[in-house]
Amino acid sequence: MEKKLNGRYPIFKYGVLAILSFVLFSMVCFANLETTLETPKRYISCMPSITEILYGLGLEEQIVGVTTACNFPPEAAKKEKVGGVTMNLERIIALKPDLVFLLEDAQKRDIEKMKKFKLPLFVINPHSVDDVKQSVLDLGKVTGQEKVAEYMVKTMNDRIAKVERKIRGKEKKKVFLIVGHRPLTTVGRNNFINDIIDLAGGINLGGTSRSPYPQFSFEQLVKYDPEALIILEGVISKRELENDSRFKSLSAMRNNMVLFINPDLLCRPTPRLVGAIEEIALFLHNEK
């Protein structure tokens, strides 16, 4: 069984728990079989971003399995592990989940394997910040936590609107985001991170590519001459950057416009991405 929605997926800890006593009837289609499900009670999250959202919805007690990469909130790391890069299908089946949450683009093979065993799947696939918001709403709906999900999205919208007001009228800066050093890799326009840069008042130079993670040559980087560099922590150190002669000619380097950012904050499609928008806006325009 698979219920598949296109949405975007980023965490807030709310003290509000939606009432779980009502029944959600949802027609889920898998292999030409339709089944009516009650609101699920045992969840397995196969992505750190989904784990964050489920915790934000107040569903920590219903989560019976997560991945080895699920590290936020910290208590998520104490949950039963069902895999890392690939999922442990045997372990997932043994946990008897009511619903298994996955991310389509990153887990196509796992999804196909789970389909063969008719596991109940809920798949999201965010490519924009709006998709992330929709993913939160979709997860809230399928788990019976719609009101909490709506509040999470409202909070995201309010914080983003605050940033937009503060940077209104300021000239956007050319930004090159480095998510991989060798080869030099950035993000394209079909990636929610492209939206993050835009909302923070930047122009993503990788946005000329349709690929979610395009590769660039250093010659191309020099030609674009970004005004600001944003680098995922752990990709390249500040010392390595300063000692690499290929970067020295860039305006961003000459003007000390280099930001090292937490990859979990920027690269996970969860409500926490708003923190990345605020941090980048402050870096580019001295505005939160």
Automatic annotation (TrEMBL):
Keywords of the record: Membrane, Signal, Transmembrane, Transmembrane helix
PANTHER family: MOLYBDATE-BINDING PROTEIN MOLA (PTHR30535:SF34), VITAMIN B12-BINDING PROTEIN (PTHR30535)
Transmembrane regions: 12-33
Keyword Signal in record: yes
Single biological process term from Gene Ontology: cellular response to iron ion
Alphabetical list of NCBIfam families matching this protein: TroA_like
Cross-referenced Pfam families: Peripla_BP_2
Protein name: Fe/B12 periplasmic-binding domain-containing protein
